[in-house]
Design goal:
single chain, about 100 residues, 5-stranded mixed beta sheet, two-stranded antiparallel ribbon, 7 strands
Length: about 100
Amino acid sequence: MEFTAEQIANLVKGKVIGDPETKVSGFSQIEEGRKGNLSFLANAKYLPLMDNTEASVVIITENLIDKNKEYPSTLIAVEDGYLAFQVLMNLYQDLQ
């Protein structure tokens, strides 16, 4: 299945930063992010990985975002990245 960043943001009650029409069809860890994949970031120790990820969309805990920086991925800012990703995974499982 393919989803846009905007569709995902609506599911997890997040805010899109970047192109809301960016499409994803798979999941990957942030360090293994590939074009067309969705990743998440909820821990500050992994922030350096944002500079090199190729993930098209990243769900990120909003207080980790540096507003003065441009990111290579479309971001979905949420209050709790862990919770948002879990909600999304549960919804994905229900679709299987």
